[in-house]
Amino acid sequence: MTASRTKHRSEIKLRERAYDAFTQHLLQSDIKPGQFISQRELVALTGQPLGAVRELIPRLEAEGLIVTVPQRGLQILPLDINLIRNAFQFRLILEREAVASFCQSASDARIEEIEAAHRTIVTAAEQGVTGAVIAAAQQVDREFHETVIDNLNNDIVSKAYRVNWIKVRLIRQNETRMDESLVLPVMHEHLAIIAALKTRDAVAATAAVTAHIMHARARALRLE
Question: Which of 34, 140, 171, 196 could crosslink 205 through cysteines, CB 3.0-4.6 Å?
Fold first, then answer.
């Protein structure tokens, strides 16, 4: 391997580390939606060199995670009605297509495995919703949706979905975070989708995933 290729790979790793660190701090609320942040602060936050941060910024802008405000600088994406509507509309577009495909192509064993994970959460929640149960429910929630999306075998869709998931997660932190009252309703909404998957009813599965996403959207818009 030439020195130039080694350097190129090293630079890519630095950019990816900077991106991972940024999104982790964003999801941990170490930086807030709407907050202004300087390049120096991004260096301190990510622990990566200024060069990597400067190369990171165009990617974050392209993904809509930061915006450049004239004469003010870099701003973490602000949460507003348009963002909520757009993020959930995008989810609907992707997940309705994905669940219809998953309904036809997923193995019975995979669907049963997914159902079992949800049943485990429901059983635990019925005994009492603790912090550990909420964390486990959030993990099952994310894995379910990502499994359905990734089944499309489309890297473009999977990457776009994950960026949108970050935005939805930020919305949830402010409006619809899974708390004690949401664990069972969310799991039961998932189980309705899974029931349709088990019978290979793509129409019912699409309707169930639509209802699930629209309920989350309504909570984000404070309609529920």
Answer: 196
- 75: three-class secondary structure by DSSP: strand
Question: In 3D, which of 191, 193, 188 has the Cα closest to residue 210?
Answer: 193
Contact predicate 179/130, CB 8 Å: no
Examine the pLDDT at 44 and tell me if it is beyond 60. yes
d(CA 187, CA 208): 12
One-character DSSP codes across 146-205: HHHHHTT--HHHHHHHHHHHHHHHHHIIIII---TTTHHHHHHHHHHHHHHHHTT-HHHH
Q: Which helix (H) or strand (E) element contains residue 69? A: strand 66-69
**How far does the chain reach from its first CA to its final CA, in angstroms?**
58
Q: What is the pTM of this model?
A: 0.82
Residue 32: strand, helix, or coil:
coil
